[in-house]
Amino acid sequence: MGIAPERIFTEGQSRTIAQNARFAADLLHPSPSSRWLLVTYGYQMPRVVGAFRKAGFDVLAFPVHLRTNGWSEMWKPDSSATENFMKLDIATHEWLALLYYKLRGYSDDWFPRPREENAEGVATRPMKAENGQLARPRTLDAATAPELRRPGSPAVASSTPQVGHTTR
After folding, report:
1. Which residue in 51, 11, 9 sits closest to 164, CA to CA?
2. Residue 153 above 60 pLDDT?
3. How large a percentage of the chain has pLDDT more than 90?
4. pTM of the entire structure?
5. pLDDT classification of 48: cutoffs 50, 70, 90
6. Strands (E), the chain
7. N vs C: which end of the chain shows fewer Cβ within 10 Å?
8. Is 6 exposed, middle or buried, given 0-12, 13-18 or 19+ CB atoms closer than 10 A?
9. Taking the chain, what is the end-to-end CA distance rounded to the nearest angstrom?
């Protein structure tokens, strides 16, 4: 994989995303000035971001396995009712889980979103576009986020989301 084995930590005791965030924080002790790359399924990313922020991680979201190709699919159903009901089930589960995580205190935000950064690169508050609307998160790769190329930072593997540490 290109990552030295001593930089990989595994957390395998959690049964929920909230537990995974707390157990990963206990294992890694994230500092306020550290930044972590959070890789998980796109459909659960808002809930995972909220839980990991609550646990003390400053995360950069990197969603994978997206289930749509954009807003155009919102109004175009799939050809099978089964697929449509599966998507409805996933969406309902995630929206209810966001509400549950907020009410139970597992997340500080109802719908976590990207944060602005100060001059030192530390996240401060949710990003807003010039028109006042929420800004879209940027795509992260080695070309657009040089902090992802720096060697020597620890990584963690877990049963749910993946968190990788980046240095500034």
Report:
1. 9
2. no
3. 30
4. 0.67
5. very high
6. 8-11, 35-41, 59-64, 115-117, 123-126, 155-158, 162-166
7. N
8. exposed
9. 22
- Whose tokens are 């009712």? That residue is 81
What was the pLDDT predicted at 133?
46
Encoded tokens for 160: 């749910």
CB-based contacts of 64, cutoff 8 Å, min separation 6: 39, 40, 41, 42
**Domain tally for the chain?**
1
Place of tokens 């909230």: 18
Confirm if 22 and 160 have CB atoms less than 8 A apart: no
Q: Dig out the tokens for 136 from the structure.
A: 């879209």
Closest CA to 114 of 54, 67, 45, 167: 45
Does residue 99 register a pLDDT over 80?
yes
For residue 97, the enclosing domain spans 5-166
